[in-house]
Amino acid sequence: MREVVLDTETTGLYYDKGDRLIEIGAIELINHIPTGNTFHSYLNPLINRQMSSEAFRVHGLTTEFLSNKPLFSEIVENLLTFLGSSKLIIHNAKFDIGFLNHELQLLETSNQSVYERLPYKEISYDTVIDTLEIAKNLYPGKSVSLDSLCIKFGINNKRKGKHGALIDSEILSEVYLELSGGKQPGFEFASAGLKNKDVTQDSLRNKKFIRRNPLNVTRLSEEEIRLHSEFISKIERNFWN
Q1: C-beta separation of 131 from 89 below 8 A
Q2: Residue 153 is part of which domain span?
Q3: Which residues of 55-69 are buried (b: 16+ CB within 10 A; e: fewer)?
Q4: Is residue 186 part of a domain?
Q5: Of 86, 115, 122, 151, which sits 20 to 30 A from 177 (CA to CA)?
Q6: In a domain? residue 204
Q7: β-bridge partners, 240
Q8: Whether this model's pTM surpasses 0.70
């Protein structure tokens, strides 16, 4: 089973107010295990202003640093090829998918030739597993930010450098594994209620277990039975007689 853990960094919180993508990171999982295959790119947001102080505190990226980075139109085909038709693992998916789909829509007018070549023109929420929603259902009323979940699961989130899309994807892959049952690949998120088909089937199999060679008294020799009886007879008020 192939899945892709994805994270983005942006210039702000609202794509409909002019904020843009500036970094995309993604990690491939096979059966919940990272393969080492990744996608990563910084992006030139084409904005004529300094990065907001709030955004800079999160990712540490400046407009100067990003000024010579590729445009979204230059990396989008490689990105969608990497994502393919796999399930996407995202924390707070509405945010990331909103920005990605906005960038895809902008291509329709800004770069028609690239837009027409895309394998798909929109990322569907049907392909997404939102770890934020899973955590909300598992821990109602608790903080379920990525940092809070790292603390809960004992995951090191203080890695080298500022929060970046690829680093956060790596951290999220570990959080996802814990939300999936912790070191037990095979859980399936059939709904927000986290139905685990594999565990349920295993439990049913265990309940129906029938020993291939039933236990019987012939497993003991006559001498063993005699010695056991003698031992019991010497115990006062024993519970066997």
Answers
A1: yes
A2: 2-199
A3: beeebebebeebeeb
A4: yes
A5: 122
A6: no
A7: none
A8: yes
Residue 53 counted as domain residue? yes
Q: Of 170, 26, 45, which Cα lies nearest the Cα of 99?
A: 45
Annotated catalytic, 163? Answer: yes
Structural domain tally of the chain? 1
Low-confidence ranges of the chain (pLDDT < 70): 159-163, 182-221, 224, 228, 231-241
Lookup: tokens for 69: 């980075």
CA angle 24, 28, 32 (to 5 degrees): 130
| Rounded (10°) angle between helices 131-138 and 165-179 | 40
Two structure tokens written together for 70: 């590729």
The CA-atom distances, in angstroms, between 18 and each of 4, 10, 42, 100, 115 are 27, 11, 18, 13, 20
Catalytic residue among 32, 59, 91, 163: 163
pLDDT value of position 226: 73
Q: pLDDT tens across 10-51, in order?
A: 999 999 999 999 999 999 999 999 999 999 999 999 988 888
CATH of the domain at 62: 3.30.420.10
Residue 237 CA to residue 172 CA, distance in Å, equals 61
Strands in the chain per DSSP E? 2-10, 21-30, 33-42, 87-90, 128-130
Contacts of 222 (CB under 8 A, 6+ apart): none
SS3 88: strand
Tell me whether residue 78 is in a domain: yes
DSSP state at residue 51? P
